[in-house]
From TrEMBL:
<protein>
    <submittedName>
        <fullName>JMJD8 protein</fullName>
    </submittedName>
</protein>
<dbReference type="InterPro" id="IPR003347">
    <property type="entry name" value="JmjC_dom"/>
</dbReference>
<dbReference type="GO" id="GO:0005634">
    <property type="term" value="C:nucleus"/>
</dbReference>
<dbReference type="InterPro" id="IPR050910">
    <property type="entry name" value="JMJD6_ArgDemeth/LysHydrox"/>
</dbReference>
<dbReference type="InterPro" id="IPR041667">
    <property type="entry name" value="Cupin_8"/>
</dbReference>
<dbReference type="Pfam" id="PF13621">
    <property type="entry name" value="Cupin_8"/>
</dbReference>
<feature type="domain" description="JmjC">
    <location>
        <begin position="99"/>
        <end position="233"/>
    </location>
</feature>
<dbReference type="GO" id="GO:0000987">
    <property type="term" value="F:cis-regulatory region sequence-specific DNA binding"/>
</dbReference>
Amino acid sequence: LAGAVPEEPGCTVERADASLTYSLFLQRFAFSRPVILGGVTDNSAFRALCTREKLLAAFGPFPVRLSTANTYSYRKVDVPFREYVEHLLKPQDPARLGSDTLYFFGDNNFTEWGPLFQHYVPPPFRIPGTSPAYSFGIAGSGSGVPFHWHGPGFSEVIFGRKRWFLYPPDKTPHFHPNETTLAWLQHTYPTLAPAQRPLECTLRPGEVLYFPDRWWHATLNLDTSVFISTFLG
């Protein structure tokens, strides 16, 4: 179903490349606005370990904790990783509520997943006074997490494409907390005036999005996607 969910008409998030220095990152982005970083790391070795075959061989029998795909994500369900990949990893049903949609993102058991994460090269920038924590996920086409906010962080796409929607802290988006991002895109997004639309962009493998503290964001996987975030807490 690649291509069944569209990309945005034009990316409105600023981009930067490997020439971005740490001091410029702190000055221009760290506390004020998101940025997409390209070419700042090489995770080809990590990507090679994240194919379906490699992940099933390494983690198939281990349980993974799934969260409901709604803003509060309170309900958790544990299933074997193989069961998730072979039976639950499907395109999003547009009519299904977030509370009935299970999503594998975060809640990683670092004893089991730690050896994989050791191969990940995180972005080279940090926010003073924070420490990084990884959150790894795999999700089907049309899935995603609806609008929410938390502390600052980075998110990298390993396989697939992920469309992001972002609002600054002082601009609360209009959404229902139990509506999936796909339903929001189909029903609410078309009604927004240009000035009410979020910043948005589609990330491809190897690209990293940085979002500052308390920025509202929602995600939508355009393909079956593998992704990892570095939360700065």
